[in-house]
Amino acid sequence: xxxxxxxxxxxxxxxxxxxxxxxxxxxxxxxxxxxxxxxxxxxxxxxxxxxxxxxxxxxxxxxxxxxxxxxxxxxxxxxxxxxxxxxxxxxxxxxxxxxxxxxxxxxxxxxxxxxxxxxxxxxxxxxxxxxxxxxxxxxxxxxxxxxxxxxxxxxxxxxxxxxxxxxxxxxxxxxxxxxxxxxxxxxxxxxxxxxxxxxxxxxxxxxxxxxxxxxxxxxxxxxxxxxxxxxxxxxxxxxxxxxxxxxxxxxxxxxxxxxxxxxxxxxxxxxxxxxxxxxxxxxxxxxxxxxxxxxxxxxxxxxxxxxxxxxxxxxxxxxxxxxxxxxxxxxxxxxxxxxxxxxxxxxxxxxxxxxxxxxxxxxxxxxxxxxxxxxxxxxxxxxxxxxxxxxxxxxxxxxxxxxxxxxxxxxxxxxxxxxxxxxxxxxx
Length: 428
Fold this sequence. Notes:
Blueprint (H helix, E strand, L loop, with lengths): L14 E10 L2 E2 L1 H9 L6 E2 L12 E2 L12 H20 L9 E4 L7 H10 L9 H11 L3 H6 L4 H10 L6 E3 L5 H14 L5 E8 L4 H9 L29 E9 H6 L6 E10 L12 H14 L8 E3 L6 H15 L8 E2 L2 H4 L6 H15 L1 E2 L22 E2 L4 E8 L3 E8 L4
Parallel strand pairs: 5-6, 5-7, 10-11, 10-14
Antiparallel strand pairs: 1-2, 1-8, 1-9, 3-4, 7-8, 9-15, 12-13, 14-15
Helix pairs in contact: 2-6, 7-13, 10-11
């Protein structure tokens, strides 16, 4: 007979978080990030990684303090995830082989333009129309380039992490745009709930800021062009918001069944209590204006947690600082929480760290748990011109003491992937 102390309202194993690690533009490690975040410090800065002349956006939340062997998104993303995973395992008190599955959220991969040009330069001349692919293969056969090959393998990051940390089975790599980090957490939780493992390693990483990324998002009119000063550009829920600030980062969480965690004497940092996920086929980048899929996602997370909306004491908003997304997220939360929304603090980490894309859901989950552990509500900075159509307590500009026992964290991705997490401080 199972011990009901360790199972939820549906008889599933309760899933605990026992280790966390994070890297953002604010710094490396949970302590440094939390100190900067709660002090209202911005990590947004002018881009120095590559020339920005002629670009409409010249700012970002790049992570430039982690050394990488090659300047491409795969190497950066791997390095970030390696460091956050080491931190999370150390906090969880786990050493040696992890002996559980790995679920990794990683950005889509493609060769950097500089690498493409280099490959084209050493390819043989064209002999007929449409022979570029064969010419590139010839060039690679004549002089193999393992660094280039590594940079175009979507699964290479998870395979390297699996080798380094001794995870079990084939690692899973996923990319669901800005919901990726939350989706990876959901996969880890479900693996434990289904009894397939007692613990799971979940990481989300994104080191993909490049010229190409800025150009593409600029063409979608998604990025802020308020370049000066950089730290003032990201202003979620403000009237003068004009787009998100692209950023980099990573986060790793160690998930365990509550029973397993207690049995080995681990410190339980928080509980992943509810999961919600819904698809939105409205548009490849825009969310449905009526907020229907986002509303359904939040409600699904609450139902999965066995809670109603009155139990949520804090919301970590997706809050990207784009005109459309912020409005949609507000209307979605209002539809779920009604007038009670006015009494719930809602803040956006993006105001300080920028939008970490693939990593965002996991980074925000870490900060959400830290909010409960410390009793400190991080602010939404740059909130000096409120949008009168968005009536939220955004914890404006300055942190606040608070004691939420349950938090909701939203992640709404391009392409229509919506994910929400309900996390609590204790199992009950």
